[in-house]
Amino acid sequence: MVWIVTITLLLFSSHALCTNPGLKVRVTQKALEYGREIGIQVLQQKLREIQIPDVSGKADVPVIGHVHYHITGIRINDISLPQSAVGFYAGNGIKLSIDNAYIHLTGHWRVKYLFISDSGSFDLSVNHLSISEAIGMTRDNTGRPAVHSAGCTANVGSLDITFHGGASWLYNLFSSSLEGPIHSSLNREICPKVSSAINGLEQHLKTMKISSHVDKYVEIEYSLVNPIAITNIFMDLDFKSEFYSVAQHKEAPFSPPPVSLSEQTDHMMYLGLSDFFANSAGFAYYGAGALHVNITNNMIPKQYPVRLNTSTFRFLIPQVEKLYPNMLMLMNLHANQRPVLKATPNNITIQAYGAIDTFAILPNSSLAPLFVLDICASVSAKMAISEMKLTGSLKLNSLRLSLGHSDVGPFKVTMLQGLLNIAVKAVVLPKVNARLANGFPLPSVDRLSFVNPLLKVNQDVLVIATDIHYGS
């Protein structure tokens, strides 16, 4: 039953209260139904652990006198939980109810009266067992989700005993004395076993990470920024989902926009990932000094006729070839401000701003500065989900150049447009796309995965609608 709650907790929580999240997760009734199927199996195993102590006593029988009996080796052989329901408990958590459950027990009996003793075995059926459990859901002071048993009741129905062996006339002498202790033991032990399942999940949640390293530059914080919001039909969890530089844990100078999700409940789960998620990544990578790349001639595919050397540049900027004849060149492309992602219906675009410092590579391997180009690029992004990671790829839309500084005299930058387009498409974007293909983790409970996720881009938010699967 613990997985009824576990499936809802894909990410985890934060210090701030009542703020817009970077990611909103909505869990629907369909998810609870899937969790119920898994949880009932877990609960059956827990109930099998119930131990009923041996029963001893005596019964006063008219004419015969005292009959001493001993009931030993009582154990549960079978449990059936055929009717169960689970639903949201508005403002509090989740409520599970089980009706018409059945338990089969076996054991041994032994009686003695005067000089007569007899023994045998018995089967006991518990019918019409009902269980009701409220699972409270909160956020602890570390920013992790927390669960607890918010109330449990169990009602053991009728007991039906069948004896085997011995003299049948002896059975009725102690059968009524047997029912009471077993009935009380079951009533006493069922709720603690249910609560044990809940507490097992709580201990599991305490070990979960609320941050994840992405690479040597950045990490992501996953923490709830608001209390868990629970209605009668769904549950919303608001996660910070912000990137930070590993070297410096610095908050982004901008805030997440509101994240809204539709009222649809066709899928088990909906995730609304705001622009803030990606823009905080851009801010963190920029702050970590990771947004730069050196472009050299050997990085340009051989099939391209244009090479990165001064001989090629004599057709574009003649003075480069005159000053540095027949020399290789190097371009250092680097961001001079953070990139900005914008999601609009069915479209994701990224504006990138930077500069290209261009050098001639002298015979002694030192660099001679040539010119600096300011660059503004627009790219389109496509996103996907792969193995619980958000992956992506970029495609160049436009590239605008302007001359920032020149050490070789004035020239028109329009002559460089084609060469730079080749360099960006052949070198820069493949490097960026290789990183995006590795993906950014969407933290989840162990052994939980998305099934057939669908992605849709809305205003300021990427919405992921998905079913889920728990297994190896």
Radius of gyration based on Cα positions: 35 Å
Strand fraction equals over 45%
| Poorly predicted runs | 1-17
Helix content: 10-25%
CATH class categorisation of the domain at 211-470: Alpha Beta
Structural class: alpha+beta
**CATH-defined fold name of the domain at 211-470:** Bactericidal permeability-increasing protein, domain 2
Which of globular, elongated, flat, extended, rod-shaped describes the shape? rod-shaped
Q: How many extended strands?
A: 23
Give the CATH H-level superfamily of the domain at 211-470.
Bactericidal permeability-increasing protein, domain 2
Summarize the helix and strand pattern as letters: HEHEEEEEEEHEEEEEEHEHHEEEEEHEEE
Count of alpha and pi helical runs: 7
- The CATH level-2 architecture of the domain at 211-470 is identified as Super Roll
The biggest sheet, with number of strands, parallel, antiparallel or mixed sense and barrel status, is: 7 strands, antiparallel
Tell me briefly what this model is.
The protein has 472 residues and is an alpha+beta fold. The chain has helices spanning 2-6, 29-48, 168-206, 275-287, 310-313, 318-323, 417-438; strands spanning 23-28, 55-61, 65-80, 83-89, 93-113, 116-139, 145-155, 159-164, 211-213, 218-221, 229-230, 234-239, 242-245, 269-274, 292-296, 329-335, 340-344, 347-361, 367-386, 389-406, 440-441, 448-458, 461-470. It has seven helices and 23 strands.
